[in-house]
């Protein structure tokens, strides 16, 4: 029985109900976050720091624990509005349930007064993590007024509240780790993927190119412009393209998620794809540091992380001090795609060839087909034909998927073998491919008794000059620490590219899987598919409706962080429940069943749609096609 049985609900007409099972499930998840305790401790600290002349105000009607629980119940229905909490209390739960939750209704209260009390309680809980809690968003201000406010902002106060919001957000992301069964936690091997997703603000944008002192700023002025192209921030190039080339522009924030992916990409997932870490910032602001913050938060919660998959915004793109070296110090390996400008370009590192994230024998410098294999497959290049009817003419060389994979397998014979892990300083030891118990090439410089005719023979003309030979060619054991050589060379076919000559090039460029190999493609494709699917489920699916800003109209940094935290925990709860209804069986080695190659519905259109896994710009190869989800990069 509702509290207002005869009252017309009007704006509070939200179909949210609190059954006993739903309340028990949400209460367990809310308690696992520990967010109520964190907020209460921060609130007490803020009260102690106030001057005795500052008014404390009336105590909120709902406690922080009740606010979190009630908002989490509403989020299960895909609604994040403040009115939904008032509707839940007034019409969605019985008086007995209200008593169990400790909610005491005042006498002679109306729905509007109930909403006011709910609104005040929620706003108080949000203000504890709000970096700009003294900025009113209930009237428009000019840019001059906004700039005057920002000049008086205390950077230390803003930084403290930003750190609070990050701890608060990750308390929600990691709550699911605490409530899942222990046997399921043991299945997680620590493979994750990172990506940033746009969180639109329910406010009108403030365009940078129209920014004049007398113009009105956005009602959510601490958000920023999101551009689909480039680094997603409003750079000068993107700003000049507003309304012309930019196909997707928005106003809001950017959330970076760390998502668990399958342990073995060739088999069915034995662990659900959950968001285990997150960070929050404006679009295009330090993507590497934001992803690193989410990874560290997951590590602090005891969640294993040993391999990170990311797109080209990560990998060898950020500064090494912001991404690669911190990951190395944490003992985490990378799986990333190469930028277009890095395809087919190499540097000489201690006599070895550093090409597309891997170290190869320097003798491969004489094999242009192997060096430019990825470039020839993805985009092609202008070459002079050596045979055929077009001999001597410049033609556009482009190879198929099968040809590319054949060259990658042949390139693997030149691959240096890791001798231990990459150190915390980014350095590593590798062995010459002609040495060791399983050599893959037969080099004239080595007298290896284990060599056989099945290995790739290297001619004397392929050997590097004596002055360019490093430790891999000169050391008797063929083992050396990868570091730049004084005779650093560049690809003679591309004189415009120069490799870095610092001692951090290994940490920035090297990844533990061979780029383009079957293992790399499987790990990279599954990681990218998984995190894009998670972003879609959190934002666009009707069950959550988080991307609908009309369902979360409160503005401000803190309000959006609360929305994101509730959406992440709701997704994790729903996805875990769905996974437990159909648990993937494992064998004695803990592996799931081998994946079956099922035909997607759009592939059954007899060629009237894009062929399976092949982008529109990719020629169809009758002998072999790329796997599903393999990313075709832009030419920019």
What's the topology here?
Blueprint: H1 20-33, H2 35-49, H3 64-75, H4 82-91, H5 95-100, H6 111-127, H7 143-151, H8 155-173, H9 175-179, H10 182-185, E1 191-200, E2 224-227, H11 236-240, E3 249-260, E4 275-281, H12 287-300, E5 307-310, H13 324-329, E6 333-336, E7 346-349, E8 352-355, E9 358-360, H14 368-371, H15 373-378, E10 381-384, E11 394-397, H16 401-411, E12 417-418, E13 429-431, E14 441-442, E15 456-457, H17 471-474, E16 479-481, H18 505-509, H19 518-539, H20 557-581
Parallel strand pairs: 1-5, 5-6, 14-15
Antiparallel strand pairs: 1-3, 2-3, 3-4, 7-8, 8-9, 10-11, 12-13, 13-16
Helix pairs in contact: 1-3, 4-6, 8-20
Organism: Nostocoides vanveenii
Region (Disordered): 585-636
Protein name: Transposase
Offer a few descriptive terms.
636 residues; alpha+beta; six-stranded mixed beta sheet; three-stranded antiparallel beta sheet; 20 helices; 16 strands; elongated; disordered C terminus; Transposase
């Amino acid at each position: 029985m509702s509290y207002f049985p005869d009252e017309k609900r009007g704006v509070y007409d939200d179909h949210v109900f609190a059954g006993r099972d739903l309340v028990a499930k949400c209460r367990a998840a809310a308690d696992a976050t520990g967010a109520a305790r964190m907020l209460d401790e921060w609130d007490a600290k803020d009260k102690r720091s106030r001057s005795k002349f500052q008014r404390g105000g009336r105590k909120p009607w709902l406690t922080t624990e009740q606010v979190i629980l009630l908002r989490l119940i509403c989020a299960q229905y895909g609604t994040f509005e403040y009115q939904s909490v008032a509707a839940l209390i007034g019409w969605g739960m019985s008086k007995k349930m209200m008593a169990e939750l400790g909610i005491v209704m005042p006498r002679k209260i109306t729905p509007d007064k109930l909403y006011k009390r709910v609104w005040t309680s929620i706003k108080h809980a949000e203000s504890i993590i709000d970096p700009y809690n003294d900025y009113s968003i209930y009237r428009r201000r000019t840019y001059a007024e906004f700039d005057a406010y920002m000049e008086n902002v205390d950077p230390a106060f803003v930084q403290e509240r930003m750190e609070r919001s990050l701890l608060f957000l990750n308390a929600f992301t990691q709550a699911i780790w605490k409530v899942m069964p222990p046997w399921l936690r043991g299945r997680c091997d620590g493979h994750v993927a990172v990506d940033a997703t746009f969180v639109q603000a329910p406010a009108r944008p403030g365009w940078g190119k129209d920014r004049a002192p007398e113009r009105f700023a956005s009602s959510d002025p601490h958000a920023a412009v999101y551009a689909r192209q480039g680094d997603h921030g409003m750079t000068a190039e993107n700003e000049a393209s507003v309304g012309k080339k930019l196909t997707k522009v928005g106003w809001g924030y950017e959330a970076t998620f760390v998502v668990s992916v399958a342990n073995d990409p060739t088999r069915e997932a034995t662990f659900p794809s959950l968001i285990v870490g997150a960070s929050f910032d404006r679009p295009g602001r330090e993507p590497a540091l934001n992803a690193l913050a989410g990874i560290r938060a997951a590590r602090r919660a005891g969640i294993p992380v040993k391999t990170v998959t990311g797109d080209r915004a990560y990998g060898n793109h950020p500064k090494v001090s912001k991404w690669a070296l911190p990951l190395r110090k944490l003992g985490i390996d990378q799986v990333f795609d190469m930028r277009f400008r890095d395809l087919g370009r190499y540097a000489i590192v201690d006599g070895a060839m550093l090409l597309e994230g891997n170290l190869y024998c320097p003798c491969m410098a004489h094999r242009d087909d192997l060096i430019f294999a990825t470039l020839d497959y993805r985009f092609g290049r202008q070459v002079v034909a050596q045979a055929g009817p077009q001999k001597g003419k410049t033609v556009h060389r482009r190879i198929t998927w099968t040809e590319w994979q054949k060259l990658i397998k042949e390139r693997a014979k030149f691959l240096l073998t890791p001798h231990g892990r990459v150190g915390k300083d980014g350095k590593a030891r590798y062995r010459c491919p002609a040495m060791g118990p399983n050599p893959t090439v037969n080099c004239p410089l080595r007298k290896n008794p284990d060599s056989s005719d099945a290995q790739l023979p290297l001619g004397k003309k392929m050997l590097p000059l004596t002055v360019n030979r490093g430790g891999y060619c000169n050391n008797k054991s063929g083992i050396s620490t990868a570091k730049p050589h004084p005779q650093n060379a560049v690809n003679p076919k591309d004189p415009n590219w120069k490799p870095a000559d610092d001692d951090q090039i290994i940490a920035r460029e090297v990844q533990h899987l061979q780029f383009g190999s079957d293992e790399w493609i499987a790990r990279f494709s599954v990681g990218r598919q998984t995190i894009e699917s998670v972003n879609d489920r959190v934002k666009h699916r009707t069950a959550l409706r988080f991307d609908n800003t009309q369902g979360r109209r409160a503005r401000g940094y803190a309000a959006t962080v609360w929305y994101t935290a509730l959406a992440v925990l709701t997704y994790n709860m729903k996805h875990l429940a769905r996974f437990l209804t159909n648990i993937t069986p494992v064998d004695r080695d803990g592996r799931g069943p081998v994946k079956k190659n099922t035909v997607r519905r759009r592939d059954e259109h007899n060629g009237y749609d894009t062929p399976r896994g092949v982008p529109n710009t990719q020629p169809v190869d009758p002998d072999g096609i790329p796997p599903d989800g393999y990313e075709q990069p832009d030419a920019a």
